[in-house]
Amino acid sequence: MINYLRQGLLIFGFTLLGEALQMLLPLPIPAAIYGLVFLFLALCLKLVKVEHVKEFSGFLLTIMPLLFVAPTVNLLESWGLLLPNIGWILLLIAASTILVFGVSGIVCQAVCKKEDDHE
Fold first, then answer.
1. Using an 8 Å Cβ cutoff, are 55 and 38 in contact?
2. What residues contact residue 3 under an 8 Å CB cut-off, 6+ apart?
3. pTM (2 decimals)?
């Protein structure tokens, strides 16, 4: 239990750092993205070990669908504003999904090729 608390505080510390940076910089980047980038850099630079966040991050991934309930309810409350633009919204969702699939496939192939070259 103490381990979860320590790991959660570490992750939330990076989130808080992202919130602070968003207040300082006038860029339209969400605070959560800043926090994730800082955590990623800390992991890459070995300032934070994977073991320091592994269990709590697994817990967050497990409850992730629950975290989408509130934003979904907010979208349903704004249905009147969304309905006139539903065609554009669906087009953007489809285009971004295809783009993510394509980029993910290219990255996956590059990583697999790099692993094969190392063997």
1. no
2. 55
3. 0.64
Element (H, E) at 83: none
Helices (H), 25-85: 31-44, 54-62, 64-67, 69-77, 79-82
- Contact by Cβ (8 Å): 39, 54: no
Coil, strand, or helix at residue 39? helix
Through-space distance between the first and last CA atoms of the chain, rounded to whole angstroms: 41
The HSE-up count of residue 71 (CA atoms within 13 Å, CB side) is 5
Q: HSE of 10 in the Cβ direction (CA atoms, 13 Å)?
A: 21
User: Which pLDDT score, from 0 to 100, does residue 94 have?
Assistant: 97
Q: pLDDT digit string (tens) for 17-65?
A: 999 999 999 888 999 999 999 999 999 999 999 999 999 999 999 999 9
pLDDT tens per residue, range 52-111: 999 999 999 999 999 888 888 888 888 888 899 999 999 999 999 999 999 999 999 999
